[in-house]
Amino acid sequence: MNEKSSVGKLKGIGEKTVALFARVGVKTVGDLIRYYPRGYDIFDDPVPIGELEEGKTAAVTGAVFGRIQVSGNQRMQITTLHLKDLTGTLKVIWFRMPFLRATLSKGGPLTLRGRVVRKREGLVMEHPEIYYPAAKYEEKRHSMQPVYSLTSGLTNNAVVKAVKQALECVSGMQDILPLELEEQYGFVPYAQAVQTMHFPLTKEGFVQARERFVFEEFLVFILTLRRMKHSESRAANQFHLPDHPAITDFLKRLPYRLTGAQEKVWNEIRSDMQGSSVMSRLVQGDVGSGKTVVAFLALLLAGLNGCQGAMMAPTEVLARQHFENISGMLKKYSIPLKASLLTGSMTAAQKRKVYESIEDGSSSIIIGTHALIQEKVKYRDLALVVTDEQHRFGVRQREALAEKGRTPHILVMSATPIPRTLAIILYGDLDISVIDEMPKNRLPIKNCVVDTGYRETAYRFIKKQVTEGRQCYVICPMVEESERMEAENVMDYSAMLSEEMGDQIRVGCLHGRMKQQEKDAVMEAFGRNEIQILVSTTVVEVGIDVPNATVILIENAERFGLAQLHQLRGRVGRGKYQSYCIFMSPSRSKETKERLEILNRSNDGFFIAGEDLRLRGPGDLFGIRQSGILDFRLADVFQDAKLLQAASAAADKILKDDPLLALPGHEGLKNCIDEKMQQIMLETTL
Question: Which of 120, 138, 186, 405 is most buried by its number of CB atoms within 10 A?
Answer without folding.
Answer: 405
